[in-house]
Amino acid sequence: MRCAGCARWDISMADNVNSPLLKSLSNRINLREVPFTERASRLLVFLTDGHFAVWLAERWVKRDQDLVAYRNRPPILDQWSFTDGDGNPLAMEITTYPHCICCQTALGPFRLTYADPETLLIAFPAAPCGMTFRARVDQAQPDRRGGVLRLIGEIRRSIAYTTNAPVLRSEISAGDPREQIVHLCVDASQGGKAALLNITPRLGFNRWVPDAEAAIEAAARRWHEWLAATPEVAESYHTQYIYAWWIMRAGLISSRYYTTREVMTPSKFYYVGAWQWDNFFHALAYRHVDLRLAEDQIRILLDHQRHDGMIPDAVHDEGVVTHLSYPVEADVTKPPLIAWAAWKLYEQSGDREFLDEIYEPLVHWNNWWFENNDVDGNGLCEYQHPYSSGLDDSPLWDDGMPVESPDLNSYLCLQQEALSKIASVIGEHQDAKMWALRAGSMARRLIRLKWDASAGLFWATRNGARINVRTPFNLFPLITGRMPPEIAARLVGHLTDEDEFWPQYPVPTVALDDPAFDPQQMWRGPTWANINYLLIEGLFRSGYAQVARELRRRTLALIAGQPDICEYYDPRTGYKPPQAAPAFGWSAALYIDLAIQATRDGEDSPS
Prior knowledge:
Layout: H1 20-23, E1 43-48, E2 51-56, H2 61-64, E3 77-84, E4 93-96, E5 101-105, E6 108-116, E7 119-123, E8 128-135, E9 139-143, E10 146-151, E11 157-163, E12 167-174, E13 180-187, E14 194-200, H3 212-228, H4 238-250, E15 252-253, E16 263-264, E17 274-275, H5 276-286, H6 291-303, E18 314-316, E19 319-321, E20 323-324, E21 330-331, H7 338-349, H8 352-372, H9 406-425, H10 429-450, E22 451-452, E23 457-458, E24 461-462, E25 465-466, H11 485-495, H12 529-541, H13 545-560, H14 585-600
Antiparallel strand pairs: 1-2, 2-3, 3-8, 4-5, 5-6, 6-7, 7-14, 8-13, 9-10, 10-11, 11-14, 12-13, 15-16, 17-18, 18-19, 20-21, 22-23, 24-25
Helix pairs in contact: 4-14, 5-6, 5-7, 5-14, 6-7, 7-8, 7-9, 8-9, 9-10, 12-13, 13-14
């Protein structure tokens, strides 16, 4: 187990980092792919070629007319460097912690922390010194303590920079179009001096400079308390486990417009918003430390449920994603796992009121699938849009839509099973019986319509024709725990075949020996933590505890085997493919939950 001393706030420790937990994360925030950020913040601090830059975790869809333009948008603040009293740039040796970036220079340390989610504080060394940066804004107005910079037009943002040190030099000059260059030099010789950078969409600014040491300590305490509140795990999991909890706090964004609740983003730089099934997996980690936060990952989706029962694919500040015209035109949602996730939260919390609150919306959601997505009327549902599967570029969709896929109908079986349990708890006993019968019927219907005894697989079909690609989703009826022993044995045989789905780091999202296998391309081969998580649970439910534990062990080893926790992995090497997002939400969340499971089962080694 994690040693008790790791949760201590030790004021005797050197370099102003008073927590072993924070010290254990020294330089895990690499500032190249993984930014320095804070809970609720939209500010992302990166380091490039020896200077800092600040990006905004904001979409601006109404301005850009593009859902993903933010990935290519330049930083709002760039070329940010620290200087001596004459304005000359200083070389820096940088150390990062969750609460602080320490920049050691010839003058002493400059330290960055978050005074609040929209405000960075820079603690100056006790010497004449300063900073310079370029801001992509339209207007600039200097004043006696710093200045105010404004981006105007359809998207409005402001940067207020303020110091409590005597100002030696303060200049603003125009650079390229829509760019202002700031030079600030101060006399910080007396010590304890600082500056604020408040980057905000608000009308008002934060220009009150707090005591720098108190602000840094407050930030450290916030992070320490978050990490110290986590359940203990075996020591062998601890290093990556604490980093995973850093991701789960750093990835939270505050409520704003359509983002009605504090919510976890899959990645603040790659995926700005809340995606439906990501939220379900995020909630599984949060239930161990903050049940309200876990429940809110589900509530935000129900806040935007459509009148016909559909739940959006994603929610972002400026709206929701419910319909797309590419690669086909159709409504877009995500796999129906919300009741499954809600039941797991209830098992942790016993919060019956939460189940009462969400039951009717969940029923409405379940009905939407059967009323709108059973194209051929056979009782099994189809995906109308590839993105509704969550498996955006899987070869299952290469020949077009709609596709009747075993994974979707396995999820619907789990969903109706969970609805039965929820209905029983809240006193809807007739509903509980009805949902239990429907779950059983779904499992039998899957066998009758999708099982191929000669191949030992469940096939996806389009217009009644078999889709000849082998994926773990051909095995997914296993996750229902309702397959007859002879079928479960065939599915597990495929899963554990080293030529198909059992490389060093299973489970590839296309079979290794299938012509469509590509270990570098999202859902066409790489291993994903959420697919493994569902299969691990299904193996336990199906009576294959030893295989489940082995898959759990390999999944933990995979995620622990890299410096970062990424979106998906090469199943043969365990490395991060180039396009995979760093510091990824559900990989972190599921590492946490699996490490807790393994520890409680007495397993203490991910290797």
